[in-house]
Amino acid sequence: MPDVILAAMRLHLEEVLVVGAALFSIGLYLALSKRNAIGILMGVELMLNAVNVTLLAFARFIESPRPLDGQVFATFVITIAAAEAAVALALAVAIYRHRETVNIDEIDVLRW
Amino acid sequence: MIEDNAIVIAFWSLSATTIVCALMVAAVRNLVHSVLFLALTFVGVAGIYIVLSADFVAVVQVLIYAGAVGVLMTFAIMLTPGADRLNASTVFQAPAFVLGVMVFLLIAWVAYDTEWRISDREAFTTTAASLGEAFLKPYIVPFEVASVLLATAMIGAIILSRAERDDRA
């Protein structure tokens, strides 16, 4: 087989990191651009997932005396993300109850 | 470096699915469809975890993200029926897009520019047992703090979303 195909048939750390970076950028775009508070939360969750992909890639590929620590970290990230999602969605529902909207550009009571 | 052909093919097809689904989350015009694509993205990410030989984290990802967080977001949308479901963007759409592309290029450049200390270790076989040991020995304090945090978040979410009663009546 030619060298190019052989090189493409191997998975390196860099390629996993690039996939993580792509997911993170899409999450960042969602979090910064969406009007709906729930859409913003989706972006945040996507970014947390991208970070987890990166952590697990390092745990798999990088030399370390305790290689499983990356997976421990990823589990903690998932835990914190679940707590964050529960509180943030409860906040969105509470705001909706008072103002009949969850669009962030209409929630401006703190604006001077 | 992973040389098994099947794993490499699995990684690239899972990555393509995941990234396309993530783009669809941003592109579709209906917020409900957006949540469904997000759940699909979470499942794809769980597949990538399996490729990286993190079986326990992958199961947790499917349970918590694709299951719990997906249902939670669907509930949040159903509980805000009067809000618009257009999945529209604010005026920051163009700057956010530029920033996203720049962050992607920056991370990709750093990833390829750095000399990583790659190990030639084999894939982990089963991780659940050793993860449990890690949680209950070196990481016992963060583990307990995380459980307190989850309890706090649960109580907070209940208080925030509870229907307000008038106690004076």
Polypeptide structure, described:
The complex is a heterodimer of chains A (about 110) and B (about 170). Chain A has four helices and no strands. Chain A is mostly helical and about 110 residues long. In chain A, helix 2 (about 15-35) packs antiparallel against helix 3 (about 35-60) and helix 3 runs antiparallel to helix 4 (about 70-100). The longest helix of chain A has about 30 residues, at about 70-100. Chain A is elongated, with a radius of gyration of 19 Å. With about 170 residues, chain B is mainly α. In chain B, helix 1 packs antiparallel against helix 2 and helix 2 packs antiparallel against helix 3. Chain B is globular. Chains A and B meet through helix 2, helix 3 and helix 4 of A and helix 1, helix 2, helix 3, helix 4 and helix 5 of B.
**Beta-strand share of residues of chain A:** under 5%
Q: Estimate the helix proportion of chain B, in percent.
A: over 70%
Q: What structural class do helix, strand and pairing data of chain A support?
A: mainly alpha
Largest interface: A-B, 76 and 91 residues
Helix and strand succession of chain A? HHHH
DSSP summary, beta strand count of chain A: 0
Q: Which blocks of ≥5 consecutive residues of chain B have pLDDT under 50?
A: none
Q: What kind of oligomer do you see?
A: heterodimer
Q: How is the biggest beta sheet of chain A arranged?
A: none
Mean pLDDT of chain B, to the nearest integer, reads: 91
Can you write the helix and strand succession of chain B as a string? HHHHHH
Q: Strand count, sense and closure of the main sheet of chain B?
A: none
Mean pLDDT over the residues of chain A:
90
Strand content range of chain B: under 5%
The rounded distance between the terminal residues' Cα atoms of chain A is 67 Å
Number of helices of chain A: 4
Name the poorly predicted regions of chain A.
none
